[in-house]
Amino acid sequence: MRHALLLALLLLAGCQTTHEQLLAAGYPPAFADGFQDGCGSGRQAAGAISGEFRKDVPRFLADATYATGWSDGFNQCQAQRISEDRQDALERIGSDRDRAWRQHESQAMAKALSHN
After folding, report:
1. What is the C-alpha separation between 49 and 39, in angstroms, rounded?
2. 56 — phi, psi (to 5°)?
3. Residue-by-residue DSSP string for 5-55
4. pLDDT (tens digit per residue) in 36-71
């Protein structure tokens, strides 16, 4: 449930940062800080160029709220990045198939016309 709420917050965001959205939704600042750090780390772990690994290790070990936020941010943003990559790959595959079909269709038409 919490993951769905966080995802909905991310999707409904206008110009607010995720950190600001979480604070506006009533999450504690430590959670929002952890989520922000974990999100960048998760995106980087999934191969994003824009992601940057950040983790305040002493705070992670001492502050359960920060640790929970970091873990949630890492998991959600890593999964989102992987999902985006898969969607991009599926779109490329679809484009390749469409191109191959059009080429086949053109060749078949040319062959049919050349027999006349």
Report:
1. 13
2. -80, 90
3. HHHHHHHH-SSS-HHHHHHHTT--HHHHHHHHHHHHHHHHHTT-SS-----
4. 999 888 888 877 666 678 999 999 999 999 999 999
Tell me how far apart the alpha carbons of residues 104 and 72 are, in angstroms, rounded to a whole number: 48
The two tokens of residue 17 are: 């940062």
Stated pTM of the model: 0.63
Give the H or E element holding residue 116. none
Residues in Cβ contact with 77 at an 8 Å cutoff, skipping those fewer than 6 apart: 38, 39, 40, 41, 42, 43, 46, 51
Question: What does the pLDDT read at residue 87?
Answer: 83
